[in-house]
């Protein structure tokens, strides 16, 4: 059986240029061989693009910068979808600019034989349970409150005891920072967002998976490093543009 062909990539921005070199090192360290990297740089200028486009072994294209952050990310994500489908790839590995996966991440995700399968990473969220202005580190994925009543779509964030000891977990939603997606899923689903809803394209991707009967999984044995940083104020202003 021929080895699967994987396109790795994401939209990137100079607002997080401080992590791009670690990202590229993380990509180069991946042990899976039959892969290509494609990045879309939607930065407001071309400084980062001009620098990293000279690096051997990666492909980066400059995309148009706009003030509407969600529009930019969704547009670039759909271009990655298109290149996956037109380039003869079996999978798209959505690997975000600030996520560093373990070296064997792709092999392990493929071995699970799931149509959509995630590696685990964490993020900071406000915590009402811990007091005013408190934050806590949690997994960026949710599952059903009651798996027997999924049609109600009542969900909760995963806790540490849900993901450790490591296991394969069916989830409802999450980020797409380290997500392996079969090409057949991309044939059925385009990335999208809603100008009137305060959510990014990842939320709608998982919603569309659910509505099309596509199971989504998390392999919590694949723990990625999330290089957390704050967005500049000028970016925050464009997050919920038109909402």
Helix-strand blueprint:
Blueprint: E1 6-12, H1 20-29, E2 35-41, H2 47-52, E3 59-62, H3 69-86, E4 91-95, E5 99-100, H4 105-111, E6 116-120, E7 122-126, E8 135-139, E9 141-144, E10 155-157, H5 160-163, E11 168-171, E12 173-174, E13 178-182, H6 183-188, H7 201-211, E14 216-223, E15 225-226, H8 233-239
Parallel strand pairs: 1-2, 1-4, 2-3, 6-14
Antiparallel strand pairs: 4-13, 5-15, 6-13, 7-8, 9-10, 9-12, 11-14
Question: Care to describe what's here?
Answer:
By secondary structure, the chain is of the alpha/beta class. The protein has one domain (6-120, 165-226): Spore Coat Polysaccharide Biosynthesis Protein SpsA, Chain A (Alpha-Beta Complex). The chain is built from eight helices and 15 strands. An eight-stranded mixed beta sheet has the order 3-2-1-4-13-6-14-11, with helices on both faces. The radius of gyration is 18 Å and the shape is globular. It starts with 5 loop residues before the first strand and ends with a helix.
Number of discrete helical segments: 8
Described by strand count, sense and barrel closure, the largest sheet is: 8 strands, mixed
CATH architecture: Alpha-Beta Complex
From the 3D structure, determine the CATH topology. Spore Coat Polysaccharide Biosynthesis Protein SpsA, Chain A
Oligomer kind: single chain
Radius of gyration, in angstroms, nearest whole number: 18 Å
Q: Find the count of extended strands (DSSP E, 2+ residues).
A: 15
Strand order of the largest sheet: 3-2-1-4-13-6-14-11
Q: Average pLDDT, to the nearest integer?
A: 90
H/E element sequence: EHEHEHEEHEEEEEHEEEHHEEH
